């Protein structure tokens, strides 16, 4: 064999070895899980103990996220209950900038729910010993009072969800329409959605939202007409469908409710026992004409002087001479709690605690607390259970029962006790 032939034979053998080696490597790679070859990454949410700043990356009116989750979809959410003492409420960092639009939604969607749904005991907040407004000291300080408030939220949501599952099972399958969110106000900086329930602290809540949005420096500076007749706060139904679903999926949604009989009496006292240029001519005149025998000409002309039993007759009449009003409509119709998965359910009866707890959870400015002043008729006592009871004693037992039936879903969903022993 010549040297040239030997050289060619060695070259062929070497090439064959290289080809077999390359084929074996490709076969090995194809059999591996690709995730094992990529660098290990943390789960989809990164946690930080840095103070969270208000969100300014989403301009009002924008709806930049592409693939929107359904607003009532349950999202996995958990926070370690073994957070070290001294840590702040754990809140996810913003997603990394290089992620595409579709992948940015999931961490954001979890972020807002983490605040309420699975908040660990270590994130509770210590209250000071003052007898005034419940202050919000360092939110990392554990305290049994704030743990109790967290457990109360869990219980309220459980009761509400069970009532919806039992009596409104079909609601969860319906599509959200602008009508369902027409009472919801939007605060984009802190990503808050607030469903307005009249006569349950709504005026002061809208003041709080205006301060959070940077539209005022203090709640006391905002007049009643600015709150109710201005256009500073946007309603959720003013956004396009994508903007509505994006906010329902990623913002913290909350509502505050009130004992239904007390709320009804509060509305009656406010609208019919004081001069009112709208409710007297629109509702009062119609009520007096239908339900008061031999009403005077003056009463029919002005609509003033409606009595509580007459007002309740109007409320219970299936052929009302004038339509329903938000001040005495059901919460279940105003806020659609069986369709929209609210993260926080507060109560008027525990307003100070619930409101300041909520403000702590969304990391509102430390000097912002819920206002204590009465918005209208400040010299008049607030409607209490005792006052409501006095008004309802003017009704027959049948009228009380029918009124309770009218608000039955509100009593059931928000776990209020029967206000009279003879109700069933």
From TrEMBL:
Task: Tell me what topology the record assigns in the membrane.
Answer: Single-pass type II membrane protein
EC main group: transferase
What does the entry give for GO biological process?
A: carbohydrate biosynthetic process; proteoglycan biosynthetic process
- Region feature Disordered, mapped onto this chain: 48-91
Q: What is its main location?
A: Golgi
The encoding gene = CHST8
Query: What is the name of this protein?
Result: Carbohydrate sulfotransferase
Q: Which GO terms describe its molecular function?
A: sulfotransferase activity
Signal peptide, first to last residue: none
Q: Where is the composition biased (Basic and acidic residues)?
A: 66-80
Q: Where in the cell is it found?
A: Golgi apparatus membrane
Q: Keywords for this entry?
A: Carbohydrate metabolism, Glycoprotein, Golgi apparatus, Membrane, Signal-anchor, Transferase, Transmembrane, Transmembrane helix
Q: State the InterPro entries in the record.
A: Carb_sulfotrans_8-10 (IPR018011), Sulfotransferase (IPR005331)
CC terms in the record's Gene Ontology section: Golgi membrane
Q: Where is the composition biased (Polar residues)?
A: 50-65
Family the entry assigns: Belongs to the sulfotransferase 2 family.
Which EC number applies? Answer: 2.8.2.-
